[in-house]
Amino acid sequence: MKIHYIVSDLLKWDATTQADSFDLVYMEGGILHYFDDLAPVADLVQQLLRPGGRLVLSDFHPFRKCIKEVREGESKGQEEKEARRLHHGSPQAIVDP
Questions:
Q1: Which pTM value belongs to this model?
Q2: Which is more confident, 75 or 33?
Q3: Domain ranges of the chain
Q4: How far are the Cα atoms of 35, 83, 85 from residue 64, in angstroms, in the given order?
């Protein structure tokens, strides 16, 4: 099996020479929140994949990481209680856009 592995800024990469040449596009690790608009990302992935190719996407919401950092951090008092309350979906939780 031959693997062609590319690490790049997705939207700055000139993918025209690679169109229809990938069986698999792999994106992971909380990548989607870095993009203001997912349409160009989807268009590029579609351009890269061969017919029948697949996108493997593993993502998470960055807020989950914030809660973990609070729990593992030095302050385990009120901040941890607040993070737990927000994590469990308390109706009192308000998130400003």
A1: 0.56
A2: 33
A3: 16-58, 61-90
A4: 18, 10, 13
